[in-house]
Amino acid sequence: MKVNIDESWKKELHSEFEKEYFKKLVNFVKQEYQQYTCYPKGKDIFSAFDYCSFDDLKVVILGQDPYHGVDQANGLCFSVKDHIAMPPSLINIFKEIENDVEKPFPKTGNLERWAKQGVLLLNATLTVRAHQAGSHQNKGWEKFTDTVISKISEDKENVVFLLWGGFAKKKKAKIDASKHHILTSGHPSPLSANRGYWFGNKHFSKTNAFLKEKGLQPIEW
């Protein structure tokens, strides 16, 4: 696995790639991809960074693990490849967008269009073994992505962080709330959404209201 990542991120993270934990992580991932089917494809592991440069970043959405079903994951959290059926959490995200900003339900669950507008769709763990949720957790990815969150917090300002569910909310401690805008809610998964913790959070209109207030281009959700 080459650390083939957008140049703007290389400047921010180059020292991380030299650390011992990251070298061990690279070796682990290489072995896993050689021995098992893993997702996303090798070329897509750093897609979240390639589609959304550090300079253009305006919004961060945090996920936990890539999808582990056949051909679902494309390197962006909550996103699936074109022509792949939308998972339940993604359907609930689009339902909230429909209600919140009156944007019609899309034909595809591929969120590359968000990433190109400055939305970093970051999973805490960037790889997974097929059909084994959480199989690449606690191998070093979380340390790397925690550093990413801290770097954004330190080196940028007026970024909107959307923290959905208990796991994402824990990352709040790494974000300087005096410089950034943090929105939290329940997770869009059916378990949480059906209990009333997701629908009506209006995170998409709130994000755009904040961006406009700061003179930034709102996101076309």
From TrEMBL:
<feature type="domain" description="Uracil-DNA glycosylase-like">
    <location>
        <begin position="49"/>
        <end position="211"/>
    </location>
</feature>
<dbReference type="InterPro" id="IPR036895">
    <property type="entry name" value="Uracil-DNA_glycosylase-like_sf"/>
</dbReference>
<keyword id="KW-0963">Cytoplasm</keyword>
<dbReference type="GO" id="GO:0004844">
    <property type="term" value="F:uracil DNA N-glycosylase activity"/>
</dbReference>
<feature type="active site" description="Proton acceptor">
    <location>
        <position position="65"/>
    </location>
</feature>
<keyword id="KW-0378">Hydrolase</keyword>
<dbReference type="InterPro" id="IPR018085">
    <property type="entry name" value="Ura-DNA_Glyclase_AS"/>
</dbReference>
<keyword id="KW-0326">Glycosidase</keyword>
<protein>
    <recommendedName>
        <fullName>Uracil-DNA glycosylase</fullName>
        <ecNumber>3.2.2.27</ecNumber>
    </recommendedName>
</protein>
<comment type="function">
    <text>Excises uracil residues from the DNA which can arise as a result of misincorporation of dUMP residues by DNA polymerase or due to deamination of cytosine.</text>
</comment>
<dbReference type="InterPro" id="IPR005122">
    <property type="entry name" value="Uracil-DNA_glycosylase-like"/>
</dbReference>
<keyword id="KW-0227">DNA damage</keyword>
<dbReference type="InterPro" id="IPR002043">
    <property type="entry name" value="UDG_fam1"/>
</dbReference>
<keyword id="KW-0234">DNA repair</keyword>
<comment type="similarity">
    <text>Belongs to the uracil-DNA glycosylase (UDG) superfamily. UNG family.</text>
</comment>
<dbReference type="Pfam" id="PF03167">
    <property type="entry name" value="UDG"/>
</dbReference>
